[in-house]
Design brief:
By secondary structure, the protein is of the alpha/beta class. The protein is built from ten helices and ten strands.
Length: 257
């Protein structure tokens, strides 16, 4: 089987997931199944942070249109997207999407399934499915609206238009934009910086935010209280508190456990 998703676990604690389906990293069913399996591996044996990339010039230009057909095929393709992107979203560590170029349709939806997004200044993002007479089927109508608000999500989805990196940053679709020449270094540096933090505790914070948004405020606050107590059961909480007492804030050397 052709390897379409490469998983590299680096010595600094960063796990790098690289899409490799030339020329534009079309998200075929085969690629999505490999992405799902890699994400599940990262969930069962978590690294300290995760970087998801398609390379310096493209992230992913969308689904493999050759697999489209009628409603039955749509259910199969949609199911593959749902499984893969839910698996990415469930990784219990900080995940960074490194968007070097086009992130369209399913590619944009993959970026949305990550926690954070960094883009090259030549990146372009969008949900152009409406131009095919269909709607997003990989979470675009849900994750995009939660990230940038329903009105902006409707603008992008109803029109199918692409936004450049500057507009994406302005509306909150990406978190950082860097010059193309600095992109690969900046993306890896961000992931590496996140890897120095208390990884298991970051996972608890991620759970509190993501699950809290699915319910009402009172339910979210109770969830936060439970996970707050759980954070004190980690090795890093003991390290962090002891370091603060002895050296002040920001000096702890966390283990990720």
């Amino acid at each position: 089987m052709t390897e379409l998703v490469h998983l590299e676990r680096r010595d600094d604690g960063v796990a790098v997931l690289t899409l490799d389906n030339p020329k534009v990293n079309a998200l075929s069913s085969a690629l999505l199944h490999q992405l799902r399996d890699a994400a599940r591996d990262l969930t069962s044996t978590p690294p300290r942070s995760v970087l998801v990339t398609g390379g310096p010039k493209v992230f992913a230009a969308g689904a493999d249109i050759s697999e489209f057909g009628g409603p039955e095929e749509a259910e199969t393709v949609g199911g593959a997207f749902l499984e893969a992107l839910e698996a990415v979203a469930a990784i219990p560590r900080a995940t960074v999407a490194a968007i070097g170029g086009y992130a369209l349709g399913g590619g944009c939806e993959l970026a949305l399934a990550c926690d954070l997004r960094i883009a090259s200044d030549r990146a372009r993002l969008g949900q152009p499915e409406i131009l095919l007479g269909i709607i997003p089927g990989g979470g675009g109508t849900q994750r995009l609206a939660r990230l940038v608000g329903p009105s902006r999500a409707k603008d992008l989805i109803f029109s199918g238009r692409q936004v450049d990196a500057e507009e994406a940053l302005r509306i909150g679709l990406v978190d950082r934009v860097v010059p193309a020449a600095e992109f690969e270094y900046a993306a890896m540096a961000w992931a590496a910086d996140l890897a120095t933090g208390p990884g298991a505790v970051v996972g608890l914070a991620k759970q509190a935010i993501d699950e809290g948004l699915d319910g009402d405020l009172a339910t979210g606050l109770r969830l936060e209280q439970r996970l707050f107590a759980d954070s004190f059961r980690t090795e890093d909480s003991q390290i962090g508190v002891a370091s603060f007492r002895e050296h002040g804030p920001g000096k702890a050397a966390f283990t990720g456990r």
